[in-house]
Design a protein that fits this description.
It is a single chain. It is built from twelve helices and two strands, in the order αααααββααααααα. By secondary structure, it is mostly helical. The termini are far apart. The protein has a two-stranded antiparallel sheet. 71% of the residues lie in helices and 2% in strands. It has a single domain, classed as ABC transporter involved in vitamin B12 uptake, BtuC (Orthogonal Bundle), CATH 1.10.3470.
Length: 295
C-alpha cells in the first residue's frame, strides 16, 4: 500500500508523531480557552501571549536564577497564572456586564502589549532552552526514532488535559464552578465567594497556557512571536470542538493535530489550511461545534 502511494512507513509515522505533538499543544491551549470561555464567558485573545510568557518565564528562571526545567514546570504556570489573576481582578472584572466583544478587545490589546514588551527587551531572535538531561536521547522503535522529550510532551499533555476534565466534570469543585456561571446569586447564598472563584478559574486557565509554554520551550525557540500564529489555530480548534466544551477541546486538539500530520504526508500544500477548512465545514453543518450544545 505504501509503495503504491510512494510513501515510506517511516515518513508516515514521523508525520503522525509530529501531528500528535502539535495536537498535544493544541489540546492544552484550547483546554485553557475552553475553561475560561465555558465557565466565565470570556474570549481570552491573550492566551497565545500567555503561552509565550510561560516559555519566557522558564527561560528566565534558568538564565537568571539557575532554576532548571522541572521546578520551572511548576513555577512558570504559577507565575503566569498570577499575572492572569491580576489582569482579571483589575481589568476584566469591570467588563462582565458588557458585551463579550469588550473582553475580546481588552485581551487582544493585552496580547499586543505583552508581545511588544518582550520583543523590545529580547528581540525577535529565539532564545535556546535545552532539553533536561533526564529526557535527552530517544528510543528506536524499529520504524522510527522517538525522542524521549517529545514522548514526554504527549504524556504530560494527556495527564493535564484529562485531569482537568475530571476536576471540572466529576468533582464537587467543578460542580460549584459550573453552577457559579449559571446562577452566581444562588451559589453565593451558600457562602461561596463567587468573585474569588471566577478569578481563580481565570488564573487556572491562563496557567494552562503557561504550562504549554514550558513544554514548548525545549522544542521551539523561545521568542515573542511564538504564540501569535498558534493562537489562531487554537481558536479554530475551540470553535470546531464547541465553544466552552472541555472534552471537545481535548479530543479536537489531538484529532486535528493528527489530521494535520496526515495532510503533510498526502497533500503538503494544504497542511497549513486544513484545520480552517474543517472549521468552515463544521460551522456550516453544526454551528455550535462538534461537542457544543445548541442554544
Amino acid at each position: 500500500m505504501f509503495e503504491l502511494l510512494n510513501i515510506s512507513p517511516q515518513v508516515l509515522m514521523g508525520q503522525l508523531l509530529l501531528g500528535l505533538i502539535n495536537g498535544s499543544f493544541y489540546a492544552v491551549l484550547s483546554l485553557g480557552l475552553a475553561v475560561i470561555f465555558g465557565l466565565l464567558n470570556i474570549i481570552n485573545f491573550s492566551h497565545g501571549a500567555q503561552y509565550m510568557m510561560g516559555a519566557f518565564v522558564a527561560w528566565m528562571l534558568l538564565s537568571y536564577l539557575g532554576i532548571g526545567y522541572w521546578p520551572a514546570l511548576i513555577l512558570a504556570p504559577l507565575i503566569v497564572g498570577a499575572v492572569g489573576i491580576v489582569l482579571e481582578r483589575f481589568a476584566l472584572s469591570r467588563l462582565y456586564h458588557l458585551d463579550h466583544l469588550y473582553g475580546l478587545l481588552l485581551t487582544f490589546g493585552v496580547a499586543l502589549i505583552m508581545q511588544g514588551l518582550f520583543r523590545n527587551y529580547y528581540g525577535i531572535s529565539g532564545q535556546p532552552y535545552n532539553i533536561p538531561d533526564a529526557l535527552s536521547g530517544g528510543r528506536n522503535l524499529g520504524f522510527m526514532f522517538l525522542p524521549n522529550y517529545r514522548a514526554w510532551v504527549v504524556v504530560a499533555s494527556v495527564i493535564v488535559c484529562f485531569g482537568t476534565w475530571f476536576m471540572i466534570e466529576r468533582t464537587r469543585l467543578g460542580a460549584y464552578l459550573r453552577a457559579a456561571t449559571e446562577n452566581p446569586v444562588l451559589v453565593g447564598a451558600f457562602g461561596i465567594n463567587v468573585p474569588r472563584m471566577i478569578t481563580l478559574t481565570y488564573g487556572f486557565g491562563v496557567a494552562l497556557a503557561g504550562f504549554a509554554g514550558v513544554l514548548a520551550a525545549p522544542i521551539y525557540s523561545v521568542n515573542p512571536n511564538m504564540g501569535a500564529d498558534l493562537i489562531i489555530v487554537v481558536f479554530a480548534v475551540v470553535v470546531i470542538g464547541g465553544m466552552g466544551s472541555i472534552l471537545g477541546a481535548i479530543i479536537t486538539g489531538y484529532g486535528l493535530g493528527l489530521i494535520e500530520g496526515l495532510t503533510r504526508v498526502f497533500y503538503p500544500e494544504a497542511s497549513s489550511v486544513v484545520i480552517f477548512v474543517i472549521m468552515a465545514i463544521v460551522l456550516m453543518i453544526k454551528p455550535e461545534g462538534l461537542f457544543g450544545r445548541a442554544n
